[in-house]
Specification:
The complex is a heterodimer of chains A (126) and B (390).
Chain A: H1 4-11, E1 24-30, E2 35-44, E3 47-56, H2 59-72, H3 77-81, H4 85-91, H5 99-102, H6 106-125
Antiparallel strand pairs in A: 1-2, 2-3
Chain B: E1 5-6, H1 17-23, H2 25-28, H3 39-59, E2 66-69, H4 72-86, E3 93-97, H5 102-112, E4 117-121, H6 131-137, E5 142-146, H7 160-170, E6 175-179, H8 191-194, E7 198-202, E8 213-217, H9 232-235, H10 243-258, H11 260-281, E9 285-287, E10 298-303, H12 308-317, E11 320-321, H13 337-341, H14 346-350, E12 352-356, H15 363-382, H16 385-389
Parallel strand pairs in B: 1-11, 3-4, 3-5, 5-6, 6-7
Antiparallel strand pairs in B: 2-8, 7-8, 9-10, 10-12
Helix pairs in contact in B: 1-10, 3-10, 4-5, 6-7, 11-15, 12-15
Classes of the chains: A alpha+beta (126), B alpha/beta (390).
């Protein structure tokens, strides 16, 4: 049901954890639906310098979280904002169709973390 | 080769070697159609009649009250539709419970399209139906009550005999059906002990083959056949009889009935080892279902802060096969309707794990699970944002 790459990211997830002094935090999903993702970013010169995630969810939820962190580490914020849930799924070699909507939320969580950072920095600048 | 620990006997069981052996001659030797008159057909007919008598003996009914079907789902469909359509002039009300198998629930929902009203009874926090609730739900329009003997997910055993009494005291014409699919291997399913008019069985749940089941229909029960064709099964279920699987099912049921006490003792010991060890070794774990009135082989537990499918995937990598009631393991986005009906909080329902032991399960299998499960839960909790919040 899952590709080898999904299982690889599920069994050995990259960048698991939290960042205590994160510049941005994004939370997406709902425990009621069985999926909740939290992404922490550290930003340096408009690039994602460090990224960590925590996920409650199924195999797809954990694998997409892990994959998105790998895809955007070192990227500019604008580049990271172009990553979509679909692109994350494609990078994993695809997901079962029933997982595309419920568990494929990692890019949304990332976008929320970036927005959180931008809101905070705008407030400071303002 | 990787170790395989099969702990999903509630999903299906391996065919008992003796049941398989009993079946084999009917595939390519005595393959005649039991409705024909020549010698190899008569052999098939004889085996079919023998199987029917054997099943009837275990159910404590007459052979002509046994209808062979393609399995539990067909038996449940046929029972509900067969009675409802036959009794429609007398009323349009059906009573069932909210924790039934989907073969019953979805059939009841289907009947609503034909003008039937269905009461879906609640269950207590252990998943049990209260006979008093059944009694209160009965109206002068009630034609059928269908309540499962034991639940397939959490293993809770319903007080079927007590429910039968309240129904029959109120109105002996109301038909009482029970889905005994999950119970058959380990619970007494004699129809007069249960007090039921109809009962569904599925062979592959008790070490028989897949694709074959039983619907018991008590004599004089209003029943409209749901499958038309040749006159097989006394005109109640058309179609050439699947002689081989019927013979295999009868053999498996006979073995199950004879060895029930020993089987239950074996399963219950391993089940209790699993439950007690998991609850004591893993914090924030909970038992789902009834503490004592549960199937001997069923351990259903929930782990807070983790999701069921991710537990299953980790166990599968170690060769351990089991099930979960999480949304991700079903076709819907909802977690198990059984756990929801029991009032289990939704986050905890997502983290449920069903381990069902069987005749070949060993202490080493249990040890293997116990040596890996705590680490898996710990690993998943370490990456769960829910564990951190609290």
């Amino acid at each position: 049901m899952y590709t080898d790459l999904v299982m690889d990211h599920f069994s050995n997830p990259r960048n698991v954890g939290t960042i205590a002094d994160a510049d941005g935090v994004g939370l997406e999903g709902n425990p009621v639906c069985g999926d909740l993702m939290k992404i922490f970013i550290k930003v340096k010169e408009d690039r994602i310098d460090d990224i960590k995630f925590q996920t409650f969810g199924c195999g797809a939820a954990i694998a997409t979280s892990s994959m998105v962190t790998e895809m955007v580490k070192g990227k500019t914020l604008d580049e990271a904002m172009t990553i979509t849930n679909r692109k994350v799924a494609e990078a994993l070699g695809g997901l079962p169709s029933q997982k595309m909507h419920c568990s494929n939320l990692a890019a949304d969580a990332l976008h929320k973390a970036i927005e959180d950072y931008r809101t905070k920095t705008a407030a400071v600048a303002g | 080769m990787q170790r395989v620990v099969y702990l999903d006997h509630a999903a299906t069981t391996p065919v008992h070697p003796k049941a398989l052996e009993a079946m084999l001659p009917f595939f390519s030797e005595s393959y005649g159609n039991p409705s024909s008159i020549y010698a190899i057909a008569r052999e098939a007919r004889k085996a079919l009649d023998g199987a029917r008598e054997s099943v009837a003996g275990i159910l404590g009914c007459k052979p002509n009250e046994v209808i062979f079907t393609s399995g539990g789902t067909e038996s449940d469909n046929t029972a509900i539709k067969g009675v409802a359509f036959a009794a429609k002039s007398g009323g349009n009300h059906i009573i069932t419970s909210s924790t039934e198998h989907h073969a019953v629930l979805h059939t009841c929902q289907f009947m609503e399209k034909f003008g039937f009203e269905v009461t879906y009874l609640p269950v207590d926090r252990f998943g049990m139906v209260d006979p008093a609730d059944v009694e209160r739900a009965i109206t002068d329009k009630t034609v059928l009550v269908t309540i499962m003997t034991a639940n397939n997910e959490v293993g809770t055993i319903n007080p079927i005999a007590d429910i039968a009494k309240v129904i029959k005291n109120k109105n002996k014409h109301i038909v009482f059906h029970t889905d005994a699919v999950q119970a058959a291997g380990s619970v007494d399913i004699a129809v007069d002990h249960l007090g039921v008019d109809m009962l569904s069985l599925s062979a592959h749940k008790f070490y028989g083959p897949k694709g074959i089941g039983v619907l018991y229909v008590r004599r004089a029960t209003p029943f409209l056949p749901q499958q038309q064709g040749g006159g097989q099964e006394r005109n109640r279920r058309a179609g050439t009889e699947s002689v081989a699987t019927i013979v295999g099912m009868a053999k498996a049921l006979e073995i199950a009935a004879t060895g029930r006490e020993e089987y239950n003792r074996h399963c219950q010991r391993l089940r209790d080892r699993l439950i007690e060890s998991i609850l004591s070794r893993i914090e924030r774990s909970y038992l789902n279902g009834h503490p004592t009135q549960r199937l001997a082989n069923n351990a259903n537990l929930s782990f807070e802060y983790v999701e069921g499918e991710s537990i299953l995937l980790n166990l599968d990598m170690l060769g351990i096969a089991c099930s979960s009631g999480s949304a991700c393991t079903s076709a819907s986005l909802e977690p198990s309707h059984v756990l929801m009906a029991m009032g289990v909080p939704v986050e905890i329902a997502h983290g449920s794990l069903r381990l069902t032991v069987g005749s070949k399960t060993t202490d080493e299998d249990v040890d293997y699970v116990l040596s890996h499960l705590p680490g898996i839960i710990q690993k998943l909790r370490a990456m769960s944002p829910l564990a951190e919040v609290r």
